Amino acid sequence: MSDERDIDLTALKGLNAPKVSEPARMAALNVAMGAFDDVQIEKAHLDNKKRQDTQENGEAARPRGDRFSFWSSPMTVVSNSLSRLRLSSATPVAGLLVLPIATMSALHFYGVLDPQDAVAPPVPVANETTVADRANGQKALNQDGAISVPGTPSSEILQGAEVGTKPTVRPRPDPSKRVRPAVSPQPFDQLQRDASPNAVQKRARSVRSFSSNQASGQLRMAPAIGRARSRIAPQMSTDKNTRFEDGRVLSVADNPVSTFSADVDTAAYARVRRSLLDGILPSRDVVRVEEMINYFDYDYPVPESREAPFKPTITVMPTPWSAGTQLMHVGIKGFDVPQEERPRANLVFLLDVSGSMRGPDRLPLLVKSFRLLLQKLQADDTISIVTYAGAAGTVLKPTKVSDRATIFAALDRLQAGGGTAGAAGIEQAYALAAQNFVEGGLNRVMLATDGDFNVGISDPDALKQFIGKKRDTGIYLSIFGFGKGNTNDALMQSLAQNGNGQASYIDTLAEAQKVLVEQAGGTLFPIATDVKFQMEFNPAAIAEYRLIGYETRALKREDFNNDTVDAGDIGSGHSVTAIYEITPVGSNAVLNSPLRYGDRQQAAQTSTDISGEIGFLKMRYKLPGETKSKLVEQAVMAGQVQDFDKVAADVRFSVAVAAFGQKLRGQSALRDFDFESINGMAMGARGEDGAGHRSEFSKLVRLAASLTAATAVTKPTSESKSD
Amino acid sequence: MSLQANSVVQTVADSDFDLVDRAKRGNRAAFAALVVRHYDFIFATAWKWARSREDAEDIAQDVCARLAKALNQWRGEGALRTWLYRIIVNAVRDQMRSKARHQSKLDAAAADPTLPRSQPPDVEGYGVNDDTLRLWDAVRELPAKQRDAVMLVYGEGLSQSDAASVLECSVGTIGSNIHDAKRRLKLALVTGEGSGFTRPSPDDPDRATPHRTLENKTMERSE
User: A32 vs B128: CB contact, 8 Å cut-off?
Assistant: First the structure.
């Protein structure tokens, strides 16, 4: 074997890889950022632990440094980069702008837009594909069932000289492709390559049935990918959202009383955030303003005892976004039950393990999230785990939290897959909860799903009844939504409402940290149930009012005093905020003209001792386990209007969130109030913001501003917002 | 493009070293910049090993995710690329192992016609003549250590000592791997297909061919 010299390997040097696909690059970036965040969170935990250890050893605490810099760093970058992003329709963009706006905003979000790497290379790609090719790709896309989300694609419609009047929709980047390739739209070039009827048909079939490609999908998932989470969504979205209209401006003369239920859900904020980070303005129906406001924790004055578990703090201030009106801000902070006084908990996790839970932001995130929760429980609390929709059954019998190893092992064994057989989960879960019932303790089923409520009772109303009946026996239900595109938001919210629980949407480990660790008390321990609000306005002082948000929480006036009517609950340490925009009598901002035959004596009837009041707030609540409600009342006096700048920072911040939510919903009152002002208001009230939630809010406001601007440019013909 | 792109972010001009340093301290933008900057390189390298867009994209995504963790281990010695090669090669090996595992399960489930067969290699982007293609085919069939050494030294143009530091072995090992590789390649190319070369011998667990079960093979990870 002496003649091996004549093997010439230098030809290997001439190998050239094909062009990078931009969606794949974005998908990789998203997964990488998810992994990066996970590492940072782990680091923060370690730091924290180290710090505690050193403190215990009597040494000086280590400086906190930039423990949370992973929150703040992108925001500062984004503020600069986004404000400089100007897409003008008059700009002679070479050929066609190939990077989807969504991609660009994602790049901006991460603070990167490399002029060489990210922007320049796509141009030649554009020149290679002709308009006809693109049209074909479009057709294939549609046959594939991968239709873009209604109401959102405006940011993706790209117009260029060669396209003429026909807008071209490009597939959105899709990291789940790596995990579930057959289900998601293929990158453009691949679509063109295998757009044969056969291939299209094959893909269409796999879109319809997860089960046929489960085996392959499961095996394809690399461990590192399974750990990461993705920010960019599959193109198909089956999110079900309840449609609702904005609360109207009501005339006090016609409707002096406003009644609604408390709401401490926060799912809407997480959804809005996810949408914006995907580079899409959220659709109106996702934006429940009160949930956005209540996402944040506010330092309103705290009541001293559990017997009066909360007290309202009322602030009246001029409306930042319109002249002539005022805001009446009602802030409530629930009593924070000290950890050692908390009742024993009996938690049953009811987990969806259907095939659709396989995505990295679903079951793997769920497992990590529930591991986080364990640290907030006490040693003799118990955990059970029941699965449904994949392999059904009890995975973990009631086990004390002190036996962590067993619980972790059970969580780690969970695997998504299989069809939808074995759906009897919910009854099994409640049976376990009942069997292990803790008298006077906390008995709760915690349902986690990506929207598959195939728990054994298929009729939603029957399911609600079942949950309501169990609630009356003392077993409550909380719901945690995972994954985007398949989450049945409306049902999730109403089931949790029926189960005296909270509906939360967990899209990242950071969100799990917030819901299950920072706010574990509120999530788990109710301090008041069936909390109702009723505000009566004095027609002598207030001409009109509009309740901001709470559209889906409205109650009938007569239901306020009816203790059998269910309403929202407030958990330990929760804060709840309600804001009215009110128009004083005589203001030129009054919208409703006075009635010609109006009831003029009514105003005159107002007796002198209450003439100083502009409104009267009543709240009803029950202590947990009780059936009779208690009443709290408080008058709102005139002449309390404060300068906006003098108002407590937390109140100002909540007003900024209210403004943002309304702006996203296209509320006409905020038409002339821009995102920049909202951001300024929020940043002026940021406070300490240890966990970075408020800085993140600011980032979202700026992202929304850029997306709105980009949408306005790419869609010059139709100014009106779709809804 | 008049996107004012150059005013967008300063991180573009920063050195890898600076970016890694900032990313290590938790700076997201710096990490994102690193990923975006090196994705092309990662993808291209992965593609040359895998010769399939889909596999290369899988590997590249995996590498990007691993970077987040691996960052802390890079002490700034040597070029970032050397270090990246190491992560890529490891990811390639892992991917090929899991693919082989996958294939064996598919073989077992062969009765199910809805499951995908192993796909033929991509035909895009070759731009090479038939001889090179045959050589490349043969290289891809080599045992992993020989294949990696050949690809790094001849395909990527690394020196033997750089290749040694990527593969974390001695220069001598690289030399002997290349020597063995040449012998095998010659045999394969001279005797042509069906020489037994394309079917692996059972004592070679690192083989990248997709028809074997490698369940028991433990991962040899260096990071």
Answer: no
